[in-house]
Structures are given as structure tokens and as C-alpha cells.
Amino acid sequence: MKKIGILVITFMVTISSFAVVPFIAIPTVVHFSSEVQALPNNEYNLIIHAVIDNGWHIYSQKLPDAGPMPTSISFQKNPLISLMGKTQEIGKKEEVYDPNIKITLSYFSNKVDFVQKVKLKAKVKTQLSAEITFMACNENCLPPKKETIIFNFN
């Protein structure tokens, strides 16, 4: 009985110690919006606009393996939509050599557009979702974050 009492007290102390740990709110420093731009022949440009708070940046999709986490975009499969090529980055890319990890890093400050060209197999009402995973940094980096973007085709 004494062992059960000690076990219960240990459990309660452990649980209560987690209760007093404050949760730190992670700031939102990158703001996303989306746009569907119609092109001829049932083709479209899907544009993810990223506006980045002053003093912050997000990394390019193309970084060396040894570096920080690159931005990545994955599109949900939709049998009515075909992706055409790779997602392009449109913005002022900055490149900086990091002597700590001995590689050149590419990133965007202020704003960047990610553009994916797609083709609709038929003129129908549908949607496509994209998940963008990114890491925002200034002198320090925030934990990686995921955002979901929905593109609607009418």
C-alpha cells in the first residue's frame, strides 16, 4: 500500500510540474494569401503570396542538405488537376555565406511569390489544397511551421 501511495504522489507531482510550464505563443511573422490566375487552354498559375515581417526571412526551396530546413510546398492529389513543372520562386532572393556551417544560404525577406502552373483536365468546379512548410528566421529561428492554402477553381 505504501508503494502505491508513493507512486500516486510521484505521478501527481509530475503532472503538476507540467501544468505550471507556461506555453509560449509563437509569433506569426509570415502572412500568406493565394491567387488563381487563369491562362489559356485550361491552364492556371497558382500563386502563394508570402509577406514577411520586417527583419525576418524564409528560406528558399533550394538549399544544400547540410543547411537549415528549406521551404517546401506539397499539393494534394486531385485527379482533375495536373501539376506542370516545379513550383517557381519569384522575389528578391538573397544569398549569404554562413561560416558556421560553411555553406551559402538562399532566402527571401519582405515578400516572395511561389507559383505553380497547373492544367485542369476539364472545365469543372474543384479545388486544390497546398501545404507550405517553412522556417522563419532573424538572428534566431522559429520552429518550422505548416500552413494550408486552398485554391478554388470555378
Keywords, please?
single chain; mainly beta; Immunoglobulin-like; 4-stranded antiparallel β-sheet; 51% strand; elongated; disordered N terminus
Can you offer a commentary on this structure?
By secondary structure, the chain is mainly beta. The chain has one domain: Immunoglobulin-like (Sandwich). It is 12% helix and 51% strand. It is built from one helix and eleven strands. It has a four-stranded antiparallel beta sheet with strand order 1-2-8-5, with no helix packed on it. It has a four-stranded antiparallel beta sheet with strand order 6-7-3-10, with no helix packed on it. Strand 1 and strand 2 (43-52) form a beta hairpin. The model is unreliable at 1-21 (pLDDT under 50).
The overall average pLDDT, rounded, is 87
Radius of gyration: 22 Å
What do we call the CATH topology?
Immunoglobulin-like
Number of spatially distinct domains = 1
Q: How would you characterize the largest beta sheet?
A: 4 strands, antiparallel
Helix content: 10-25%
Record the SSE blueprint.
Elements: H1 2-19, E1 30-38, E2 43-52, E3 57-59, E4 72-75, E5 81-90, E6 93-98, E7 103-109, E8 111-120, E9 126-134, E10 136-137, E11 145-153
Antiparallel strand pairs: 1-2, 2-8, 3-7, 3-10, 4-9, 5-8, 6-7, 9-11
Short description:
With 154 residues, the protein is mostly beta strands. It has one helix at residues 2-19; strands at 30-38, 43-52, 57-59, 72-75, 81-90, 93-98, 103-109, 111-120, 126-134, 136-137, 145-153.
